[in-house]
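FIELD: query
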Amino acid sequence: MKHPSANIQITSKSHEKYGMMKALSLKVSLMLHQTAFYQKWQFSRQSAPQYSLEQGFHPVSWISALLTSRKNFSIYFKRTMHPALPKGWLFCLFIAALLLLMPAFNLSAQPVNGTAADITLDWPDWRGKDRDGIWHETGVPLKFSVETLEAKWSVPIGPGYSGPTVANGRVYLTDRLEKPSQSEGILCFDEKTGKKLWEYRYACEYEGVGYPAGPRASVVISGGKAYALGTMGHLHCLDASTGEVIWKKDMGREYQIRMPIWGISATPLVSGDKIILQISGSDNACVVALDKNTGREIWQSLEDVASYSAPVIFEKNGKRVLVVWTEDHLAGLEPENGKVYWKFPWKLNMGMGISTPVLYDDHVFVSAFYNGSLLVRLGDDYHTAERVWQREGRSERQTDALHCVMNTPVIMDGYIYGVDSYGELRCLEFLTGDRVWESLAAVKKDRWANIHFIQHGENTWMFNEHGELIITRLTPEGYEEISRTKIIEPTREQLPRGVTWSHPAFANRHVFIRNDQELRCVDLGQ
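FIELD: result
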């Protein structure tokens, strides 16, 4: 594919003399863009840059063209640059350094036809690489051109709540089948075509689990391995390329799980050499850490019953804290040994804590459907914490502050944005929990109405339970809708009214989303 520099039209007389350098410019620019330094400087797991044929002038290509010829650069320097500027190769080296550093300053959203410094990223974990719901890609649309985006490809799957994950050209998912017998499956598809690459199924009968539409936790990809946790506690570590089982454990049997009402749901967390799980085990084993390569136990912690919230690790000044939200506590643990640094008693009605804890300005925020919201302030090393405010309404309809269901709120510029118990999109003051505004524009009002938030620069992308993708701007002044399109149809396995409750994956300028019948890939560049 041609590099964009091949289409540059430069009109000044001095620039016309440089046409001969375009071929060399191509080589130099591509070499720079493909270096490990360039990729690590922008973001980890960056894939190769994608170039569009319809390009205009780009400074990376232009500067590299100048640098490929000393004579060429000398002509331009003498005729154009201010005579007071330094001359010679020191200046060339200075420009070369700027060229290498330039990618760091090109992280803002771009139109669909991107630039040579565009960034494409995988989505290998729950809510993205860092579990923060932030989407760092460039070259994505600022608005949609059609009311419905058709699928690039679609493949049939069984029901399930788990959102897809994407890594190294593959898409991963779990589902449940009831015929010929009850089973859970771990599935892998080609990212470009949807072709099924492998499938691993195991017998799994749901016992005492409400809303039995399928597995909850996303497949986590790390170090060439795929980690999948099922609703009844079956844990598998598979080769991510082949689906071969490396190790597996029946956590329900080994740890005598006290099954939550809606099953084991929290996506496992890979940290260093460990995989950390909230599984509701007996005898101080609500949270368990295993060796990610062998499945050997490293530590266990907390007597609590599990909630449905994914564990996260926050770090400051080289100190880390593992934040877990159970049915009984919001707690901070030492990731290496499970030691409890701090915990706040908070008995959740029906254990219904689902959203992921959010870190903002050294505070942690959580919100539950029945129990309202809690904000705690972390100490300088995150190993201590104190309650800032806690608010709870009189009922699921007469709520105070925010009563989230499945959505994880967004916190920006001193304000919290989240969806209340019946679909009310709300803005709260961060330090008080006082309501600033409320809107019903993003999702229809209904019990447990849901939106998943994905932050992309200044815009907040929303995926609602109606299968709609919405680009918005959230500010204290109100809800501003920029564009909306439909990407998938709701299905009725999870809830009779028809919903899409799974979290989408945003990877390599595509969105991957499932309902209870199909997995879809939608090209955001169409």
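FIELD: remark
The radius of gyration is 25 Å.
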